[in-house]
Specification:
Largest sheet: 3 strands, antiparallel
Bound molecules: zinc ion
Number of helices: 1
Strand content: 25-35%
Order of helices and strands: EEEEEEEH
Structural class: mainly beta
Helix content: 10-25%
Number of strands: 7
Strand order of the largest sheet: 1-2-3
Shape: globular
Oligomer: single chain
Length: 80
């Protein structure tokens, strides 16, 4: 879950799984996290809905460890 201040700057990121707040300084998160945004379409029961949630890295690791097939992983070719 992301919260923004009145100027639209990122103020807070909260893990939807464990509720931990991830530190944000001057609108910039100091810890990376998993962000999901899904726009459901016509071939679903949620047509027109957008679902969003955020997970800290520990909760992401816990989520993917329960998957029958691990997520695909590839290396970034250009790091910022
Ligand atoms: Zn978490």
């Amino acid at each position: 879950m992301r919260e923004y201040d009145s100027a639209g700057k990122l103020a807070r990121v909260v893990c939807n799984q464990c509720g931990r707040s991830l530190e944000v300084k001057n609108g910039v998160p100091t810890i990376d996290w998993f962000a999901a945004d899904k726009e459901w379409g016509f071939f679903s029961d949620k047509d027109g809905q957008i679902h969003s949630f955020d997970l800290c890295e520990e909760c992401y690791n816990q989520l993917v460890s329960g998957l029958k097939i691990a997520p695909s992983v590839r290396e970034q070719t250009e790091l910022v």
